[in-house]
Design goal:
The protein has a five-stranded antiparallel sheet with strand order 5-6-4-9-12. Helix 1 packs antiparallel against helix 2, helix 1 (8-21) packs parallel to helix 6 (199-209) and helix 2 (24-33) runs antiparallel to helix 6 (199-209). It has a domain at 8-161 and 172-251. It has 14 helices and 14 strands. By secondary structure, the protein is of the alpha+beta class.
Length: 453
């Protein structure tokens, strides 16, 4: 059964509100509303010892009846998501709808003790035991019943515990480099990103990590983050076909658009491989870096433009609008941006009087014309005022890759006379918060220390 069934609109709004609110009461209500998505109790007994699972008996026990996981079978890369997410008809990855970003403050020892590391690892393995990894690798899956997550650490954390890795540029420095206010930097020590198509899955995972429930999806919670991490911030978001039109108060958003600006993203040619953004050498080999941003967006002004103007500014003015489609669906697997498009921003500006966002950021691709940032979320912020904010999360081998791509969006990088509102999408966005993190490989994810050699 797909989440986008005939009851989808009402459930989406309800689940979005529940995930944004959080807490045991919201989790219980959300679980009940989503029960049709996760099957019956008998479905959940498959693969469990003795053919039975504990059933919820109190409000501290949450058996969500979704498939459980096998931690020892997972990749050593925390960021290995592609095999465990849904793929559309063109082979593009489809990130799960429900997103929860937890900004964390470290309250443990400096440097961390082995007991603290064991506690954090135990808490994360509880989640991997309770929930399958995303779709479980099922290539025919139509939605993600399980959980995907990754835990990253900031320069602030590493300063306290042994030295900042070279490839981890502090958020304040990133903001300065791209011409933004360094005061917008988050002061988190760590960030946990979680995704699922089931809202109660991310909520139950959060509750388990912070000792708010005793069992999660039939698995006893023995280790938590308590005493090691506390929550400094909590950001909920949603992404997916039709969601912006359902949950935002803006009648101009196309009904089938997956993102609030009306067009698809995540085309194969605009995303690097997971191998391409993986650290190859040094003590953090197998990991990656992550940039987490909360951005404001001026949708009213964006939709004051015609579809043709928006398509040109999102992709490239040389693209035929009829070949893009209402939301970019006619492009199929690829955005159609070429090296010539990327190299000709000034020429296109003179010819068309506007330039495209995808065209501009393509200038930051590598020598093989491969993008350097793997987008993991662009979700509508459901915990913010309607339509004013969204979450953007990107992975890259070095934070400087993010810097170079973000700088390519700036109008002052180009020698042309195009007005800011016609220069891609940058004039419609405002940075509210940014964080930069190092995401270690799974064996090192529990309170790492050291520098990147």
């Amino acid at each position: 059964m797909s989440p986008d069934n005939e009851r989808g609109i009402g459930r989406r709004e309800f689940v979005a509100a529940a995930v944004a609110i959080g807490g045991a009461s919201a989790l219980s209500a959300c679980q009940e509303r989503e029960r049709e998505l996760v099957g019956t109790a008998s479905d959940a007994t498959e693969g469990t010892e003795g053919g039975e699972r504990p059933r919820p008996g109190t409000d501290t026990e949450f058996d969500l009846s979704v498939p459980s996981g096998e931690p020892d079978a997972l990749s050593e890369r925390q960021h290995a998501w592609n095999y465990a997410v849904v793929h559309d008809a063109h082979g593009n990855t489809v990130i799960p709808q429900q997103q929860l970003i937890l900004g964390l403050s470290y309250e443990g020892s400096s440097p961390p003790t082995e007991a603290e590391r064991d506690q954090v690892e135990g808490a994360l393995r509880t989640l991997e035991t309770a929930f399958q990894w995303g779709t479980g690798g099922n290539p025919s899956a139509s939605f993600t019943q399980g959980l995907l997550f990754m835990l990253g650490y900031s320069a602030t954390y590493f300063e306290r515990t042994g030295g900042v890795p070279e490839r981890l540029v502090p958020a304040e420095d990133v903001l300065r480099e791209v011409g933004e206010d360094p005061d917008k930097a988050d002061d988190f020590d760590a960030v946990l990103l979680m995704n699922s198509d089931i809202g109660s899955v991310v909520m139950a995972a959060e509750a388990a990590l912070f000792g708010e429930i005793e069992t999660v999806n039939g698995v006893e919670v023995t280790d938590t983050f308590e005493g090691v991490f506390s929550k400094a911030d909590r950001r909920a978001g949603m992404v997916g076909k039709g969601i912006p039109a359902d949950v935002l108060d803006n009648d101009s958003i196309p009904e089938s658009a997956p993102l609030s600006m009306g067009f698809k993203s995540g085309y194969r040619d605009s995303q690097p491989s997971e191998d391409g953004i993986t650290i190859r050498e040094g003590p953090f080999a197998g990991g990656t870096t992550m940039a987490v941003s909360r951005l404001g967006i001026d949708l009213d002004r964006w939709y004051d433009q015609s579809h043709e103007e928006r398509a040109a500014e999102m992709f490239c003015p040389a693209h035929d609008t009829d070949e893009i489609g209402e939301i970019g669906e006619k492009l199929g697997a690829e955005s159609g941006i070429t090296e010539e498009n990327a190299e000709s921003v000034e020429e296109f500006a003179e010819e068309y009087g506007r330039v495209g966002h995808t065209q501009k950021v393509a200038r930051a691709r590598d020598d093989e014309f491969v993008p350097t940032i793997l987008r993991r979320s662009e979700g509508v912020a459901t915990d913010a005022a309607q339509g004013t904010e969204f979450n953007f999360t990107g992975l890259q081998g070095h934070v400087e890759d993010f810097v170079e791509t973000r700088k390519a969006m700036n109008t002052d990088e180009y020698d042309d006379d195009v007005a800011a509102e016609d220069h891609g999408i940058i004039d419609y966005l405002e940075t509210h918060h940014r964080a930069t993190l190092l995401v270690p490989a799974r064996p090192q994810r529990a309170l790492p220390t050291g520098t990147d050699a």
